[in-house]
Amino acid sequence: MTAAEFEALVTMQDGRCAICKCELPLDIDHDHDTDEVRGLLCRDCNRGIKLLGDTVEGIRVALDYLLAPPGSGLSPRPGRGRKAGASESPGR
Ligand SMILES: [Zn+2]
User: How far is the CA of 86 from the centre of ligand 1 (A)?
Assistant: First the structure.
């Protein structure tokens, strides 16, 4: 990637991370198999996709999990998800 291409990409992305749109310092994200540049990401988003396997399939599995979580319908985690003033009976 040339300096001119980098600047064109920054302009194309309006100086923001391609995923979360933050304006933190951006890293050049690339496909680790082909070395092709994919875009500019903040460090957190770049790390996030790497942790999910850096593949469409890995991210699809995570998306499927979020769309249909296996724990859906269970009680909230203790100390979380309660409305202010609501009381909780132990029930255990
Ligand atoms: Zn980001």
Answer: 36
